Amino acid sequence: MLVLSYITFAIYISSLLMIFIYSLTQLNMLRYLLKHKKEKKKKPLLPTQLPKVTIQLPLYNEYYVVERLLKCITALEYPKNKIQIQVLDDSIDESLILTKNLVSKYQKKDIPIELITRKKRVGFKAGALKKGLETATGEFIVIFDADFMPQSNWLLNTIPYFEDSKIGVVQTRWGHLNRNYSVLTKVQAFALDSHFILEQIGRNSQNHFINFNGTAGIWRKTCIIDAGNWEHDTLTEDLDLSYRAQLKNWKFKYLDEIETMAELPISMSAIRSQQFRWNKGGAENFRKIIQKVIISKNLNLYTKINALFHLLNSSMFLNVLIISVLSVPLLFIKNVYPELSFLFNISGLFIISTLIFFCCYWHVHKYFYGGGAFSFLFYFKRFITFYSLVMGFSIHNSIAVLEGYFGKKSPFIRTPKFNNTSIRKNKYAKNKISIYSIIELVTAIYFLFAIIASLLIFPKADFSFLFFYIFLFIGFSTISYFDFKEGKLK
């Protein structure tokens, strides 16, 4: 029994250390974010001869947003003779008819727009982008997903950064059209803001690997070709191509000052499909790319370490799940074997990690809302909600990570868009109870038991993990609640 206790501690501590080291990388990026905010940003001048650009719009059953998308894209300020719009529509429902009619309408207005369809959806989004590239006439390739709405001067504000011939990608920051729709959209916005402000700025400032985010950015066409073109052997083709391009010494430019608005998923099923794809894709790319990064002679050790934790990003959900589940038996081990209590001091690493995340994300919050006492109180509430729900997603996302590491293949599941339609009326919303919601409900009960055990079972109340258990109970029960609620809509 004592040997099993030591094994449990070893696994627990290993996961704690991974989370702690990851938090240190976040802290390092905060240092560069603060430095970046003090720097004076110099915008390059618009070239006298504007280059030809191709705008690619990958679509799949986007009935609710295609009209909004095309209206926005056709209003971009750029010479008509210098632009090519490719609507890459793989739809298999009536949205394809709508797209054809819209494209025809804009063609009659002399808008340089064309529709490209495929009989077989081979390679999903990556396959569509690659197919479009075959006939792309632009020197630069602009990509927008169906739910994005760039401002009319977007191209004129981004193209000038390619004056540096070594830059292969320009990426802009995502904004959120429906940030305040629900607690779920608020948490998603919080997480994405942290990525785009803390991580993208931090990594780009240090010339570390960053990723094209799949949309709201521009590729130099020669960069795509040089890096090996789009590949569909992972669910995050954007991360894959980003690393392959940077391993070829192409530079990426991230523009936090240019915000491109987009719609956040509002249903639990939509959030799950997006989270699963992102986290599994991250793990798949770790398997595919990390060896190339490690053996590269063009990268310094610091960049390699940062890339390692960048590609391990999704595995943090797995580590959170491990320490969460193991913390309950460890609570009993602590009370049965008092001589092992010294090992629990290491648990303080999670508290330190949490404080580091709290500090880093506070500066992200200030980027948007400013400082001050009221802002801090607002942030404190947001952080607690975010932290709890992230823990609640740990089972679902850990399964995605494990599938990615073990090489299990799965199709690219698109995230349904809503554009002000309700979950009840949206035909793409699944509105059924996920098996994960049942598992998460059981897990919530597991941590409710842990809370009771901490307070009542032992001769003396043990507060070691109490607040941790409360976060976990809130997170898992909330996620499960939203899933059951949506499952009853139809």
How would you characterize this protein structure?
By secondary structure, the chain is α/β, with parallel strands linked by helices. The protein has two domains: 2-33 and 314-487, no CATH class; 49-189 and 209-271, Spore Coat Polysaccharide Biosynthesis Protein SpsA, Chain A. The chain has 16 helices and eight strands. It has helices at residues 2-38, 66-73, 95-108, 124-133, 154-158, 183-205, 221-226, 237-247, 268-295, 301-311, 315-336, 348-369, 373-392, 394-405, 435-457, 466-487, and strands spanning 53-59, 83-89, 113-116, 140-143, 148-149, 167-176, 217-220, 251-262. Helix 2 links the parallel strand 1 (53-59) and strand 2. The model has no long low-confidence stretch (mean pLDDT 93).
Structural features:
single chain, about 500 residues, alpha/beta, 2 domains, 8-stranded mixed beta sheet, about 55% helix, globular
